[in-house]
User: Which sequence fits this backbone?
C-alpha cells in the first residue's frame, strides 16, 4: 500500500516540504526543489511581486510537481497576517497558507497569542491553515480546535540548523495530535530530518540547510532520501534501544530460588 | 530610561584604552566561542590585535551571514528630496555655510524621480534630506510618503531626528525604516563638528533610536561617520547602542552602516583614516558579535572593495546612487552631498552579485506589513 500524506484536500507522496528563500538564484532553487521531490513549497508573499506575472521566483516554481504554500513572513500581528493571507490567496490562487507571525525579528520566534487569533479568523475565511509555532503541545491542541489543517512546531530557531532541540515536546505533540504534525525550522542535516520522521512526525519543512549548501541540488536529494528512510523506519517499528543484556536478575532471582 | 543613561556610565578614554589592550588570547577566545559573543568579545574583534586574524574572522563572518541571510544581497537606492539645511556640519556638503544652490523637490519632481528609480528595478528606497524643519518638516514628509508609497514595497528615511509623535504619524503612512547615524559618540568632538543648528544637541540625537523604538518602527539603522574620531571606540559604542536597543525594543530590526568620510567640495579631510583592512575587520566584527543585524554598504566605497566584500558579511547595498536632490531625472548635474566612488549601474552591480554566487533581491517586504 502506498504511504501517502493527506492534508485537507491534498494528498502528497513526498513528506518533505521546502522553502524558497536564501538560494543563490531562482533557477538553482527550482532545480534543487525538483530533485528533492518536494510537492509543497512555501513562498513568502513579501518576496514575490504579485503584480508582475514574470516574477522570477514564481516562474521557477511553475511546475506540476509543486503546490504553493504562501507564507506571511513579515507579519507582526494577527491583523497583518490576515491581510497578507487574503492578498496571497488572490495573487497565488490558493487558499493554503503557512501562517507565521513573528514580532521578534531577531530570532523570528512565533507569537502564540497572535497566531491562535489569526488562525481562528483564517479558518473562518476558508483558508487551509498550517501554523508555524513553538513546540508547545497545548497550543497545538488549541489550534487543532479552531480548525487548522496541521500544526508546524519548530525544531529549533529558523535558520539555526541546530536540529531537533525541541524533541521531547514534539514527542508529546505527535502523541496527542489529531492533525498532521510537520516539523518546521531548525532542521540542519538530513539526519535531523530522518530522526524527526522516525519519531512519527508526518512531514518536515526544510529551507536553509538546502539553500545554503554549496550543492543545493545534491542536498535536496539527500533530504529526500533521509525523509523516506526515516518514514520507512517509523513504519517498520524502530527497535527500542536496550541496555546491555544481563544474565543475572538481582531483583527477581528470589522468585526462582525454589527451582534451583 | 534611554540609552543616554547607559552611555553616561562609560568614559571614552577608558573604553578606548581597554580596546587597545586586548591581546591575541582575547581575540582567539572571541573566535572560538560557540555561544553568543558579548561586548568584551566585540572589543577584542575590533582591537589592533585582531588585525592578525582577519582571514579567520572573514571565514566566520561569511559562514554566519549565509546561515542567516542565505546567498542573497538586498538592493536599495537613496533618493535625495532636499539639500536645504540649517545645520553646520564640518564634513558635509549640505552644511549651511557651504555655498550651494538649495533645492527641495516639488510633487511633480518627486514623481519624475520615482519613475526613473522604478525603471532601474528598485523596490526598496531610502529618502534623504538635510535638516530644514520649516520647509522640509513632518508635513513635507507626509506628502512625500503619500506620493512615493504606492510605488515601493519598503521605504526608509534618513532625515533629521524627529519627535516620537511625528514618527507615530509617519509609520502608518508607509515609513518602514529610519536611519539615524550618531556621527560620533565622542561628545566633545561631536560639538566641534556640529557647532550650529538643532543637530548640535548630542542628547537629542543619541536618544532618537529610543523615540523610534517607542513609536514602534519596523527597523532602525545605526552607524557612525568613520573618520571623525577613533573608529574602534566609535564602533564599540555603536555595538553598545545596538545591544541596548535589541533588548528594549525587541520588536524592531536593526541595521548598521559604515560610512567612511568622503571628500566634498570645500570640506575638511578626515581626522582619522580607516583603511580597507580595518573596514573589513569592522564588518566581520559586527557580524560575529550579532548574527542577525543587517549590514549595509553604500557607493562611497570603491568598485574593487565592493566587489570583494559581497560575501564577507554585507547584506544590503546600493548601486547607481545619486546624492543630489533630483539627481536621477530632474537635475542630474547639480552638486552632490559627497562624491560617490562606485558609479556602476544597478544592472552592472546585479551582474557582479550573481557572478559571486549571490542573488540580488529587489523586493523583500510588502506594503501590507507595517
Assistant:
Amino acid at each position: 500500500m502506498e504511504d501517502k500524506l493527506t492534508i485537507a484536500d491534498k494528498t502528497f507522496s513526498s513528506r518533505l516540504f521546502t522553502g524558497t528563500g536564501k538560494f543563490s538564484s531562482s533557477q538553482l532553487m527550482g532545480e534543487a526543489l525538483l530533485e528533492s521531490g518536494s510537492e509543497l513549497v512555501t513562498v513568502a508573499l513579501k518576496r514575490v511581486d504579485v503584480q508582475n506575472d514574470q516574477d522570477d521566483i514564481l516562474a521557477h516554481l511553475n511546475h506540476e510537481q509543486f503546490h504553493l504554500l504562501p507564507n506571511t513572513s513579515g507579519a507582526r500581528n494577527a491583523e497583518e497576517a490576515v491581510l497578507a493571507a487574503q492578498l496571497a490567496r488572490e495573487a497565488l490562487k490558493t487558499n493554503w497558507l503557512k501562517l507565521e507571525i513573528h514580532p521578534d525579528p531577531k530570532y523570528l520566534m512565533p507569537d502564540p497569542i497572535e497566531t491562535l487569533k489569526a488562525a481562528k479568523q483564517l479558518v473562518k475565511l476558508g483558508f487551509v491553515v498550517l501554523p508555524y509555532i513553538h513546540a508547545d503541545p497545548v497550543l497545538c491542541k488549541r489550534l487543532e480546535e479552531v480548525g487548522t489543517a496541521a500544526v508546524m512546531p519548530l525544531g529549533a530557531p529558523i535558520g539555526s540548523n541546530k536540529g531537533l532541540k525541541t524533541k521531547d515536546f514534539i514527542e508529546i505533540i505527535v502523541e496527542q495530535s489529531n492533525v498532521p504534525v510537520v516539523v518546521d525550522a531548525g532542521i540542519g542535516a538530513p539526519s535531523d530530518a530522518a530522526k524527526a520522521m522516525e519519531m512519527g512526525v508526518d512531514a518536515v519543512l526544510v529551507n536553509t540547510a538546502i539553500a545554503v549548501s554549496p550543492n543545493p541540488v545534491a542536498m535536496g536529494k539527500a533530504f529526500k532520501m533521509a525523509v523516506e528512510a526515516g518514514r520507512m523506519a517509523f513504519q517498520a517499528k524502530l527497535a527500542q534501544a536496550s541496555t546491555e543484556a544481563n544474565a543475572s536478575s538481582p531483583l527477581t532471582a528470589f522468585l526462582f530460588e525454589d527451582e534451583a | 530610561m534611554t540609552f543616554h543613561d547607559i552611555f553616561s556610565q562609560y568614559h571614552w578614554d577608558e573604553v578606548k584604552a581597554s580596546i587597545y589592550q586586548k591581546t591575541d588570547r582575547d581575540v582567539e577566545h572571541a573566535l572560538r566561542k560557540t555561544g553568543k559573543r558579548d561586548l568584551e568579545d566585540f572589543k577584542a574583534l575590533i582591537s589592533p590585535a585582531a588585525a592578525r586574524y582577519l582571514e579567520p574572522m572573514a571565514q566566520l563572518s561569511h559562514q554566519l551571514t549565509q546561515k542567516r541571510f542565505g546567498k542573497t544581497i538586498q538592493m536599495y537606492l537613496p533618493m535625495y528630496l532636499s539639500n536645504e539645511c540649517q545645520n553646520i556640519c564640518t564634513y558635509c556638503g549640505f552644511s549651511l555655510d557651504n555655498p550651494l544652490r538649495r533645492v527641495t523637490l516639488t510633487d511633480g519632481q518627486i514623481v519624475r524621480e520615482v519613475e526613473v528609480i522604478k525603471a532601474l528595478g528598485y523596490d526598496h528606497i531610502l529618502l534623504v534630506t538635510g535638516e530644514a524643519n520649516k520647509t522640509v518638516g513632518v508635513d513635507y514628509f507626509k506628502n512625500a510618503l503619500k506620493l512615493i508609497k504606492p510605488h515601493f514595497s519598503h521605504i526608509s528615511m534618513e532625515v533629521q531626528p524627529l519627535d516620537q509623535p511625528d514618527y507615530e504619524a509617519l509609520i502608518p503612512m508607509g515609513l518602514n525604516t529610519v536611519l539615524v547615524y550618531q556621527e560620533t559618540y565622542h561628545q566633545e568632538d561631536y560639538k566641534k563638528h556640529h557647532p550650529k543648528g538643532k543637530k548640535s544637541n548630542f542628547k537629542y540625537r543619541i536618544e532618537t533610536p529610543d523615540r523610534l523604538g517607542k513609536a514602534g518602527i519596523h527597523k532602525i539603522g545605526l552607524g557612525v561617520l568613520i573618520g571623525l574620531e577613533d573608529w574602534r571606540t566609535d564602533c564599540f559604542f555603536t555595538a553598545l547602542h545596538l545591544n541596548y536597543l535589541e533588548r528594549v525594543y525587541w520588536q524592531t530590526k536593526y541595521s548598521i552602516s559604515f560610512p567612511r568620510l568622503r571628500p566634498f567640495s570645500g570640506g575638511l579631510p578626515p581626522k582619522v583614516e580607516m583603511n580597507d583592512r580595518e573596514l573589513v575587520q569592522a564588518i566581520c566584527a559586527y557580524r560575529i558579535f550579532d548574527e542577525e543585524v543587517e549590514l549595509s554598504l553604500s557607493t562611497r566605497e570603491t568598485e574593487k572593495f565592493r566587489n570583494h566584500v559581497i560575501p564577507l558579511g554585507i547584506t544590503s547595498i546600493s548601486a547607481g546612487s545619486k546624492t543630489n536632490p533630483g539627481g536621477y531625472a530632474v537635475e542630474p548635474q547639480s552638486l552632490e552631498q559627497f562624491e560617490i566612488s562606485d558609479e556602476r549601474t544597478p544592472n552592472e552591480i546585479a551582474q557582479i552579485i550573481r557572478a559571486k554566487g549571490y542573488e540580488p533581491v529587489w523586493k523583500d517586504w510588502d506594503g501590507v506589513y507595517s
